[in-house]
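The authors assume throughout that readers already know how a fold can be written as discrete tokens. For illustration, here is how one protein appears when written out as sequence plus structure tokens.
>
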Amino acid sequence: MKKFRKKIKNMLNPTFVKFICICLATGIFFYVRFDQEQTREYIVDVDVINVPAKLAILERDNLQTTVSIRVFKDQYLKLPENILAHIDLTNAKKGSNSYNIILNDKDIKANRSLRVSMLPIDINVTLDNIAYKTVNITPIITGSPIAGASIQGIEFEPRSVNISGAREIISKIDTIKTLNIDITGESNTYKIYRSLSIPKYVNSDSTRTQLEIKFTQNTIRKEYNDLDININNLNNRFNVETKEGVTITKLILEGDQSAMETLANNGLKVSINLEDITESGEYTNKTVSLNIPPQIKIIEIEPANFTVIVKDKNKVKDKDKEVVKDKNKDKDIIKDKEEL
């Protein structure tokens, strides 16, 4: 019992009690502190700097790395929005080698309270001797113009570019193509800028070219004969006739294939519009109207003008009645003479 009391007395020693309190406080501090830690991840693009003048990149890994930073909650908001990184090829040699990724942010590297991890930590790069070359540009045309149209020619400037890169890559390049140029439905000449399709790891002194695409129309000429003319918008109280008849004896049209096909599908209609006529009489130099697309032009038409004679139906009836009366009157006179 005495030994037990002695142990209790020793445990209640002020120095021992202080030691226990300090340990508990320290434990609680670190527990709370680490329990509030947060992690932020960055997908970081990696730049390549200081490539030796006589070398060029032939092949390399993906220029990205994932950076994870674990910090206490009160420091989380102080972290940067973006992180930059690079690999330095100052002392690089021809061939395949791995190069360490270096974070650009000095504050992150200097802050020892931050726990920073990165994956991957290096990038493999293959270097080759640099080569230079001048190659022509090739426009890439897709689609088709409207029916009846075709490409007459393509002018573009620049017509060639100077390229540089790893010798193995440059030796396989004979031309630089443009991105696709779609001419579907086109028929008129137009200008356009188009970017060049530059291969990976190749440098070029120009990234686009200006093109002028010229089109020509495949025209068709067709002759029509003895076309009936429709009389449109004539007041019901009139009758009409023409000195030249009511037909077009000869009509020659010319247009591109698409327009001529449209006309063939719709059917050709010829008419004279007499909407402005309000009185009977003789009207000269009346022209016909044709339902042709604007892409079609008239080469020849016979007759080109008409003289239209308009008669009032009521006046004609009255005149006919007078003629009948006169005839009946003549018949009565002849009959009276016979009776005598």
Summary: The chain is about 25% helix and 45% strand. The longest helix spans residues 313-339.
